[in-house]
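assembly run, all chains below
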Amino acid sequence: MRLLLVDDENEFVTTLAERLVIRGFEVDYATKAVDALDLAEKNRYDLVVLDMKMPGTSGLELKYMLEQIRPNMKYIFLTGHGSEEDYVAGSQQATHYLVKPVNISILISKINEAVDTHE
Amino acid sequence: MNNPDTSSQYGPIGECGLRFFGKVSASISHEIKNVLAIINENAGLLEDLSFAAQRGAAIDPERLNRACLQFSKQIRRADGIIKNMNQFAHSVDQFAAPVDLCNTTELVCNLAGRLAAMRKITLQIIPPHAPVVIDANPFLLENLIWLGLEYALENTSEALSLTLAPEQSDSGTSLRITGIDGLSEDFSDKLPAGCKDLLSASNAHLAVDTAHKALIIHLS
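ok done. output:
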């Protein structure tokens, strides 16, 4: 399964990517929306794990832009933001909405669930 | 906090002050969540590597070292966030105190760091030649600078830079926020609710210098 991780916290996204690779996933990551869009142009991903709040472009805006490039990808929002407003928006727009810090087993079960549901 | 005049100090700005407190708290909690997430992933990675080592895999000592360095880096980061939060929380302890305007501006810029980062805007403080110290209510002053900065961030294009300059002259003390490319003469219509009450309670007023794209907070 191929994943794209997008989060402006470089240390977070690189380490999470490394841990998912250890568990057998193919993972690319980006810390900027523009880089995420570039990766999506070049590669096909099963699922995108997206931060809700990023500099310049919100996770919701980026999801919309990614959908224009690759309409069939699934999404999980993974965010430090815990407001009710974000939860409502995030859970409506993605398969799952998870709050940092997240247990990797839970993240993986949600990833599998999202992709299995899709298939 | 045993001043009997609490209501007279904060009554007029009640909702505005609470909103300020809420926004700062939300921003701080978000920052701390990010720190915890990085620590969580690095702790998890050490577990992964330990598990792999138990099964005979060779572990790169440099990778272990980088994970450990992240712990100390994130602890320093969290310590900085909490120091700012603590200073902010204690600003309601005194209703009137000598306040260094540059230090207070720096605190508010730190508290607003994530808001600025979201807009990709750089905040730069230009320190005065000599300390600018005024007698003020620290919390009201922070709230006032926050509102000015919030307005500036909302009316400045992404990826630009804002400068904040505490100034003292014969005409008084002020904080000049420069670089607001969307500044207009009708700026007062765009100010958040409660700003007028806050200005009144702080004995301050706002002015614009459109030629220099500057909002000036005049402090008495």
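Residues 209 and 220 of chain B are 19 Å apart (CA to CA).

The first strand of chain B starts at residue 97 and ends at 100.

not gonna interpret more than that til we talk
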